[in-house]
Specification:
single chain; alpha+beta; Elongation Factor Tu (Ef-tu), domain 3; OB fold (Dihydrolipoamide Acetyltransferase, E2P); six-stranded antiparallel beta barrel; five-stranded antiparallel beta sheet; 23 strands; 26% helix
């Protein structure tokens, strides 16, 4: 019985060794003969093709420093309007609703008041009186020139005529102010109702009034926005005041999933906010009427300043971790060595390499670096 047990145990040990050898061969086949140590990795031609490994050399490029800032999208002052009635009145009819698009000259609402009737009647009255006063003035002037009337009488007629002209002009301007055309006003067209029209084309952003409401000229009834000309206003820290200038480009995203947009600085604020230690910068987007822009939207932006020439690599070439930045150098025959580099300024595509002397003349992996790195310690 003792000999039988020894034979069985030996058989199991032999079977286990054979399995380990088989598993080892299988693992080696799966890794496709990847050979690596601390900072080098060797790939087969097939692996290089699968990983799409490509190489390139350091380049001289023009790169901008980036000043990060926050801000908001805003409509130009001339493209925003807070609309009110020009005189105290009752709202008769509202012709638009929130979010509606209106064209310049389109009726937004109608308002009315009995005082408008009195104003129109007074204008027509003085207009008719002025005709007779003009005729009397001309007649008296002729007589005065012929010494047929006294100077005192002529002066009184002239005074009455000038007063009437002033009254007519004042009433004329009041009618224009409330939205009536005095030059087309006749007795048949006297009305208590006046139309309020849009000063420019745009969207009704807010409505603060209801039908039948009594309103004063100081009350805002609508907010109208023309989205064809947005600006962006940025808050920038004071320490960057000396490096930012009019004409610098700004890169920003109007929403999280939006593509980057660009703007050009046209105004730099001269006042410093004592609380935030920031100053205002205004920029004009290149596509100011983009549907992705929305007045009041919060944005993150970076101002591109001080274009400088640097030696750089594509960002895809550089691997960054807690220990620093690294690139792979092609040592030929499928062998790639990991080298630490010192990086500097960057943009969307490139990153500066400061210790470029260690890379001069070498082929650097610019595509497939992450794949190489993942196999480095296997």
């Amino acid at each position: 019985m003792k000999y039988i047990f020894i034979i069985i145990a030996s058989s199991l040990l032999l079977f286990s060794c054979e399995n380990e050898k088989a598993n080892s061969n299988e693992t080696q086949a799966t890794n496709e003969n990847v050979v690596s140590n601390n900072n080098t990795v060797t790939f087969t031609e097939e692996q290089i093709k699968v990983a799409n490994i490509k190489t390139g050399k350091v380049e001289k490029i023009s790169i901008s420093q980036e000043v990060f800032s926050t801000g908001v999208v805003e409509s130009s002052p001339q493209n925003m309007a807070k609309i009110s009635v020009p005189a105290s009145a009752f709202i008769d009819k509202i012709s638009v609703k929130h979010g509606a698009y209106v064209k310049k000259g389109q009726t937004i609402l109608t308002f009315k008041h009995n005082d408008f009737i009195d104003l129109e009647a007074s204008y027509l009255k003085i207009k008719n009186e002025l005709k007779f006063k003009k005729e009397e003035y001309d007649r008296q002037k002729k007589l005065y020139n012929e010494n047929a009337v006294s100077k005192k009488k002529f002066n009184q007629v002239e005074l009455d005529y000038n007063i009437a002209k002033t009254q007519k002009k004042a009433l004329e301007q009041k009618l224009i102010l409330i939205g009536l055309n005095p030059y087309k006003l006749t007795a048949d067209k006297i009305s208590s109702e006046i139309k309020l029209i849009a000063p420019f084309s745009g969207y009704i952003d807010e409505v603060f009034v209801t039908t039948g409401q009594y309103v004063e000229p100081t009350e805002v009834l609508f907010e109208l926005i023309n989205p064809s000309n947005y600006n962006i206003m940025l808050s920038v820290y004071a320490k960057y005041r000396s490096v930012i200038k009019v004409g610098d480009k700004v890169q920003f995203r109007p929403c999280d999933n939006c593509k980057p947009m660009y703007a050009k600085i046209y105004s730099i604020g001269q006042l410093l906010d004592e609380k935030t230690k920031t100053f205002k910068v205004h920029a004009q987007p290149e596509n100011a009427n983009s549907v992705e822009l929305m007045s009041g939207a919060y944005i993150n932006a970076k101002i591109l300043v001080n274009n400088i020439e640097v030696t750089a690599l594509p960002k895809s070439a550089v691997i960054t971790n807690k220990n620093g930045s690294f690139v792979f150098v092609d040592n030929s025959n499928g062998n790639y060595k990991l080298i630490k580099v010192e990086t500097g300024e960057s943009n969307d595509k490139y990153i500066e390499v400061k210790n470029v002397d260690i890379l001069e003349g070498k082929d650097i992996v610019v595509s497939g670096s992450n794949y190489l790195y993942s196999n480095l310690n296997e």
